Amino acid sequence: MKRVLVLILVLSCIAVFCLLVSCQKSINATSPEPESTVLLTATITQTVTITPTVTNTATATPTNTPIITKYSFPSDLEGWYRDVMGMGFTSVAHNTDPEYSALGTTGSAQANCNFYSPMNLGYMSRDYSPTINLDGKTIKAYIYVPSSLAVLSPSYYAHIQIHSLAGGYTFGGAIDLDTEGWNLMQWAPAGIGVNEVDRVTIVVGRTAPNDWSGVVYIDEISYE
Ligand SMILES: [Ca+2]
User: Fold this and answer.
1) 70 CA → ligand 1 middle, Å
2) Per-residue pLDDT tens for 171-215?
3) Residues bordering ligand 1, an ion, CB closer than 5 Å
4) 128-131 — which CB contacts under 8 Å span 24+ positions?
5) Kind of pairing between the strands at 89-95 and 70-71
6) How far is CA 87 from the centre of its chain?
7) If you measure from the C-alpha of residue 87 to the centroid of ligand 1, how many angstroms do you get, rounded to a whole number?
8) I want to staple 205 with a disulfide (CB 3.0 to 4.6 A). Which of 1, 121, 163, 196 is the partner?
9) At CA 110, angle to CA 105 and CA 111, rounded to 5?
């Protein structure tokens, strides 16, 4: 009888042991994984704005462009053009023939002319933007008169004309084109708008209906 009780007790212990092992396995199976250690790396970007130091060196803004004191036309028309306000000039081209270049210089402006009513004026102009200041300046220009023009009576004339928004059109320095060869016209403009000139024009015109076609040359236009 004792042997039977001992056997039962041993079997019971074995059963309890097995039960405990089984429970431990179950607990391990449902336990959460240990939390990971997250390493947070903060990236700090710093934007640095550098503000330059501004030194105010501004001076008065000029209202006029620097004056080109002389147009000698060595290689082109230097901004001068046939102005449709005076269509007696049918075109203006660059001349390289030294015979028709004033004062022994190279090149001149060649104005091709056809004067017939109502084409009584020929204009060759140059525009300025910004304006130029001709106050106290003398404008000079040479014009070559061919014999066919010089013999006309009454003669043709030439003069210098300026334009400004303030003063409109003003002209001076008129000469009669009655002498063959190079002729000088000159004029010291004055009055309203002379310090803000936006256009200078060399004008050829006539006062009588004596038609003429041919060529005049213009050279050495200066503001001094
Ligand atoms: Ca020239």
Assistant:
1) 10
2) 999 999 999 999 999 999 999 999 999 999 999 999 999 999 999
3) 72-73, 101, 105, 107-108, 219
4) 128/65, 128/197, 128/198, 128/199, 128/200, 129/65, 129/198, 130/62, 130/63, 130/64, 130/65, 131/63, 131/64, 131/65, 131/164, 131/195, 131/196, 131/197, 131/198
5) unpaired
6) 29
7) 24
8) 121
9) 145
**CA 132 – ligand 1 centroid, Å:** 22
**pLDDT above 80 (res 14):** no
> How do residues 76-110 score in pLDDT, each as one tens digit?
999 999 999 999 999 999 999 999 999 999 999 99
pTM above 0.85, yes or no: no
In the chain the domains, ranked by start, together with CATH numbers, are: 70-223 (2.60.120.260)
C-alpha dist (Å) from residue 53 to 47, 60, 79, 93, 107: 19, 21, 42, 52, 51
Say if CB 100 and CB 144 are below 8 A apart.
Answer: yes
**Angstrom distance (rounded) from CA 113 to CA 110:** 9
For residue 49, is pLDDT > 70? no
CA of 73 to the centre of ligand 1 (A): 5
Number of residues assigned to the chain: 224
